[in-house]
User: Fold TetR family transcriptional regulator from Neorhizobium alkalisoli.
Amino acid sequence: MAREMLRQGGRSARIQEAVHRTVKELLAQMDRSEITVPMIAEKAGVPPSTIYRRWGDLSDLLADVALERLRPIADPEDTGAMGSDIETFIVDYAEEMSSDVGRGMYSDILGSSSDSAARCCHYTIHHLETLRQRAEGRGEPGFEVDAAMDKIVAPIVYHILFQDKAVTPDYCRALVSDFLGGKG
Amino acid sequence: MAREMLRQGGRSARIQEAVHRTVKELLAQMDRSEITVPMIAEKAGVPPSTIYRRWGDLSDLLADVALERLRPIADPEDTGAMGSDIETFIVDYAEEMSSDVGRGMYSDILGSSSDSAARCCHYTIHHLETLRQRAEGRGEPGFEVDAAMDKIVAPIVYHILFQDKAVTPDYCRALVSDFLGGKG
DNA sequence: CCACTAACGCTAATAATTTGCGTTAAGGTG
DNA sequence: CACCTTAACGCAAATTATTAGCGTTAGTGG
Assistant:
């Protein structure tokens, strides 16, 4: 992945923005296996060497873009109760990530030599942590975030990645209710 | 991945063997990001064009090699009882796959455009199925293979891939005993 | 043993990546 | 606010990887 930007403003930031935007546009138009660095460079209006120097190679650039897309911009929806909070978050997450674009983001992140994989799952942990704290603030008993990762998130991500079975909303809800039910 | 070989014998098979062996050797010596097709070609004694024509590109070749390494060669060890069969199989599997080489195989498989991901997890399902049948042959109650994939395999593979926590034998054993305990 | 053709080797053309070097502009300092 | 330092850039040349054409080799089935 890109090393942290040492300079945050001006030209450097404009290039980062233009390149990221271009990658997202290309990803929506064609298969990732057809995308090349020179192609991105031309569309974004920067020389290829700038991309190579800054991101290293295509897989690191794709991982960087994927990670940015996954970065939390808002907290999960507040539905009023812990069970429905978790269910809503998980069903939405699974739907978003089981698309071709979503699975592609996972592949890019896992194919990169950087630490983007660990970062990516920290985002999910962070969201679950938010839901846990919210529940406890309501006086609900809360839940173990690690256990939720193992029992809910891991199976969903596994099936998305290995494409061995369809990840349906019903399947997700069953995982959630199994997790919540197995506690009492 | 490589299309199925139309010709199984002679020269074609020798090349496949030489290339696979070379890839495994290189993988043991250096980081995968340093490996190139021309490098493999020279060491294996074949022209690069042959590799490109047959495997398409490097990621498909790596996925092909990874899949071959994961292909079951023997049934899981028979320890005399279902619980210890599952535990032994899972602990061994986790240990093997949590190495850098193991994680690399997953990355290669997930980064390929072929169906190698689904095949890879079918291998695991097949092994679990073997254990289930063996247990039932002994008069034991058996277990749900799908549930074992969700509750045992998925969390292990998730943590290996996303590198968010160490997958220790104790952790694996806890997953197995949780799975078996939650049934009675 | 012969015919058929998949798969190969070689080579030339094309495309991607790396590198050196001069230039621009961000961010800090007096 | 002008100046200094240097990260990051643009350009272009050199290197390396990939693709494609075409004749050749050698499995496979008859």
In short: Chain B touches chain A through 29 residues (CB under 8 Å). Residues 116-137 of chain B form the longest helix (22 residues). Chain B has a mean pLDDT of 95.
